[in-house]
Amino acid sequence: MKQLTPDLAKTAYKYMNDIRHFEDRVHKVFLTGAIPGFVHLYAGEEAVAVGVCSHLTDSDYITSTHRGHGHCIAKGCDVNGMMAEIYGKATGLNNGKGGSMHIADVDKGMLGANGMVSGGMPIAVGAGLRNKYLKTDDVAVCFFGDGANNEGNFHEAMNMASIWKLPVIFVNENNNFAEATPQIYATAAKTIAQRAEAYDMPSERVDGKNFMAVFEAAGRAIDRARQGDGPTLIECKTYRNYGHFEGDQQTYKYDSPEEEAFAKRDDIQEFRAYAVSEGLFTAAEADQIEQQSTDDIEAAVKFAEDSPLPDPESLYEDVFAD
Amino acid sequence: MSRKPITFMQAINEGLTQAMEKDDRVFIMGEDVAGGAKVKHLADKNEDSWGGVFGVTKGLMPKFGRERVIDTPVSEMGYMGAAVGAAITGLRPVPELMFNDFVGFCLDTILAQGSKMRYMFGGKAKVPLTIRTTHGAGASGAAQHSGSYYGLFASIPGVKVVVPSNPYDAKGLLLAAIEEDNIVVFSEDKTLYGMKGDVPEGYYKVEIGKATITRAGTDLSIVTIGKMVQVAEAVADELAKSGIQVEVIDLRTVAPWDEATVIQSVQKTGRLIVIDEAHPRNSTATDIAAVVTDKAFDYLDGPVKRVTAPETPVPFASNLEQLYMPSVKRVLDEASEIIDDLKVVKA
Q1: Complex ipTM
Q2: What transmembrane ranges does the database entry give (chain A) (predicted)?
């Protein structure tokens, strides 16, 4: 299993900071009206995306969700291209034609954020099927939220991945709410992890605010998948710092002191404290990474703002491959 | 190249075989496309069971193995989505949707995922995916197993839709579809499976997006889709007795349909009937009528007529089902409205 070396820890810490700064920045810019459309922010859930993707290479695949910016960054997508995409600019990763909900970079193994709840789940199964078909040891990671676990796609994807023993890791980001509806109302199971039992699939339930918990569970699951031992479901209990979408008044949050306390935990600060205490990096190095991250995201905003709009002709392009 | 005629079903089977021989990335998946997975006595003899509910894929599993002829659970959403995932990551899946009426289970994978990926991702993805499915009334399949929904697929930008009318086209269009780097819905009329025709033994393609004129004429154009070619041919035979020369166009591809061939024909004949087994509203037939009216209005000597199914589900009772489908008589009735003057002129 991949160990958390100092280098890997620094990269992970950089990505976590990139995600947080990226999302905080998008939040602010959205209020100015410069970013059009629907935006769903990932801030607060960084430990999940980065904890999992720290094990992956460009030849591994991930599928994502409507809350996909974090997965993109953790998988190594260019933040300039991402920001420009969210602004709807020609220099965006998708030439401005996808937007926040459809950012993708297939060459990086990032098969797209997805505007359809659960939409990425069978696609991840297909990527896993491809990996097995071509006899590679690449894996496919399927990120999905607690809302998706009540879609038919979840059940069909889990079942197929299990009967075919595919190298797919289902990573549930349980942030407690499907839009404004709590899991305790919508899901007839105490945990999402327990649903794996119905598909004869191993599962784990981890503290999604704890980077190391996610990193280690993902490492175990990914190792099993690479060795041909089939899929795993990992439920990561987490919380989003913002609403379902930008503009959400979030009146459904904080039903109990416990919920509020959990929501206010900062996965990034927790990881920093852990890494410094373990000697993975120093506090000074952490400060430096944070500053670099802030600078990088500011540069991304500037890049996006300075970029041109797509050429009108591109409206008609790329419906079909030639 | 010369051999006995083979059936429409055999032509598709042969096309699939040759596509799989040519390219290791091509594989088949669907419900009972082999059948009998994990049944030991079949495995011992390397035999499949059904080979598809109609037997179209029979014999492919023994030849290519279960890794490439994959029986799926009854999970259309799941396996069609997996096909999209396999396609975008470099394989060339040929999933089967047993009846096009089942599309409700998996439409997201086509409508919101596969068809849009290339565009949404700024041209940086390919989705080489051929979805085989069946349509068509006439087999007493009743309302949930007899519909013709190729027009529904055709209404989605990013999807090509092919409807072959004969064994030669079935094989050639299928091989062309599987070579496409796009989603192609290959819709087979289940009542044509037994139709025989001359089919070359070797690998060949029929161009997607190109209609064919099966009979040249100067007085009336009839545009047809799939098995409706046979109705059009019968109408043409009948009208020939009155000296009326019908031009029959087999559309072959519903999306994108061949505007140039249709409009050139109308410019010659001045009259157009479209025969389509699908429902008439918001449909392929209606689209053709609108485009021809727009682009060839000055050439038309009368309204564009459409002979289609009624705006109803497919009924079960055989007499009603026969009434449901466009018939030679209904086409002749419509034709009489726009060719009366022609008969007078010719007389």
Answers
A1: 0.95
A2: none
In a domain, B19, yes or no: yes
Domain finish residue from B134, B169, B197: B197
Residue ranges for chain B with pLDDT beneath 50: none
Two tokens, residue B48? 């499949």
Among the partner residues B86, B118, B121, nearest to A126 by beta-carbon distance: B86
Q: Is residue B297 part of a domain?
A: yes
Question: Where does the pLDDT of residue A90 fall: very low under 50, low under 70, confident under 90, or very high at 90 and above?
Answer: very high
User: Phi/psi at B253 (nearest 5 deg)?
Assistant: -120, 125
Residue B207 falls inside a structural domain: no
**Candidates A129, A141, A154, partner chain B, best to mutate (most B CBs within 10 A):** A129
B135 is catalytic: no
Task: Suggest the residue from A62, A64, A156, A200 to mutate for an interface test with chain B (most B CBs closer than 10 A).
Answer: A156
Both B188 and B238 in one domain: the answer is no
Q: Which residue has the tokens 């820890």?
A: A9
Output the pTM of the full model.
Answer: 0.96
Distance CA B334, CA B301 (A): 14
Same domain, yes or no: B78 and B122: yes
Domain count, chain B: 2
Contacts of B83 in chain A (CB under 8 A): 126
Nearest chain B CA: its distance from A113 CA (Å) = 10
Q: State the architecture of A6-301 in CATH terms.
A: 3-Layer(aba) Sandwich (3.40)
Q: How far apart are CA A118 and CA A120, in angstroms?
A: 5
